[in-house]
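Researcher: Quick sanity check before group meeting.
Model: Go ahead. Protein one:
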Amino acid sequence: MTAQPRADNLKTTYQRWLGRRHPPECPDCKHIWGDQGPPDTFEDYAQRYPDLAHGAKRHLTVEWDPGLTVAEVASSVGCSQEHVREAIDNGMLEAREIGGVLHVTRTNVTRWKAAKAPAGDGARSWITLQGASERYGFTLEALQAMVDSGELSHRPGGADSGQGAVLVSRRQCGQLRDKVGYTVQEAAERLNLSVPLIEEHLRQAGWRRSGELLPFETVRLLSRRLAEQRAGAQVTQAGDEGLVSAKEAMAIASVSKATFYRWADEGLVPQVARQSGARYRDEDVRRQARVYWGAARRQGQTPPGWIAQEKPSKG
């Protein structure tokens, strides 16, 4: 049960809210107060304010800042307004309409600038629905629903993506995943660990929970941390036997360079450091290939022959 604030504390926050009350077009305030709209009286405020989330309470008393307009973003970053609009259209830069004018929060501008202000017109900025599902943990149905609703920017795939294929914005997928987050259970399933073990690793990593859900970046970093630990343990247990190069691993798994290095980046195939370059354990490559091809439904793509040989014959 949530402890109720004292009446004098409520009066203090009420006066602070009145003094910093945001204009009617503030989308966050609209969401916080809902269909009822903002309170008209202290009594109404005292009834509704205590049950609000901490973040909502904080928003209500900060100075109003709608963010930067397209022109202000362009000036701040040092690019053209057309470049900013293209980035917004491609899902590289999140914007919202306030009073009929597009605005971008200062935090989003800072992050976009730090990422070298991508416009989203390059091939690396886009990913197939299947790839987005594997990388960001959304189901194909959820991704398609976000595409259909306009929440997720998309474009037709190239000739090598298959007929009718759709590409979606990598950056926007990551932003949406961060907004949704992972439950600890979902993170455990993604990393193939038990919930208690996930929580123990989070404590060891010094992660401080700021909410019930884990951001995508936290899960990705945890995956890499676990991969490094596994790789370190494997090095002490064995020499070079069973190790393959990246090129050999791609041939074993029958996947592209982009797919394989995504596996390595996410810790799905742990890297073993050698003076001659990175190596990968054959068994790790095959394990991930089984998962990849077992879940894949790709037209015109054929899994490696050894996977077909492993499948029990029907009859």
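Researcher: Fine. The other one?
Model: Protein two, sequence then structure:
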Amino acid sequence: MDTKEIIKKVRKVEIKTKKLTNNVFGGEYQSTFKGRGMTFSEVRSYEFGDDVRTIDWNVTARYNEPFVKVFEEERELTLMLMVDISGSKLFGSEDQIKKNIVTEISATLAFLQYRITIK
């Protein structure tokens, strides 16, 4: 199976699963989780138990009440593909040997991960 055939098959799968991949988190994405990140989200009133290191001293001085900075938690998910390349991959029918099926599945997963990451 050559590269052009694999890409043609992957494109078919991509079209069928496009809606599904829009709902899956993968790669770098905007997190809805608040936490210790580098991306500033908002300023809110200080609540008991908040880390004092997150106090925004400029806003606190302006309003005479403590405010804290809230950051978005940054997440990155990594896809690792591990494929068995032993001789058993040559088993199958004339049309579909395991090696070709595994290649197609791996290419599909890698392509979908790439699509999610570049959004």
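Researcher: One line on it for the slide.
Model: The chain has two domains: 1-29+76-119, 32-73.
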